[in-house]
Amino acid sequence: MKSKIECQKIKKGIISLLFLGIFALAVTLQSCNQKVKAAEKDKAISDLSIYNLPSKWTNQNGQNIEMKDMKGKVLVMVMIYTSCKAACPRLVADMRNIEQRLPENIKDKVQMVLVSIDPETDTPKRLKAFAIENKMNSNQWVFLRSTEENTREFAAVLAVNYKKVSPMDFSHSNIISVFNADGELTYQQEGLSVNSDPTIAKIKEEAQKIN
């Protein structure tokens, strides 16, 4: 018959083995997750992805980026210019409304992006001031500017038409676009102050696909 001391030793041994097993399982799962994330990051970009674009952009903080730097998130994008007094304030309001209606548990998977069609006026400093003025200065929001050539090329991708009608005025399309985590266009909302329910539904659908 085993003594109490021997039984206690056996129990301690079993507990130690259990802890070692749990630790080994946790390490294995972490390694698997890292491999999955690495594989997703290295996933080939399709021909339809905006991440193929080689254009360089500057954000409101003066940082130089490429579109592919935002890979892995759902992008909600609109083209505006900060000196606009007609359609753009309403587009900005629509973007803010969409962002506010997103569930908290997916917000870190979504990037709200505003691209300037007037890079000459919309310097990083001006974009930063605009972001603050409109209470869009959290990490959720990115403002971008580039050269006129890159801007025109990107507008073509979004099917946004714009034309300079005076030194401080542009005529342009009113379109909000949703891109999936691979940079592929999946939905567009056209018009001002329209029902954004389908847009939000698409953003949720794409965000839920991201691990």
From TrEMBL:
- Source organism: Flavobacterium flavipallidum
Please report the name of this protein according to its UniProt entry.
SCO family protein
Q: Which SUPFAM superfamilies match?
A: Thioredoxin-like
Q: Which residues form the signal peptide?
A: none
Tell me which family the UniProt entry assigns to this protein: Belongs to the SCO1/2 family.
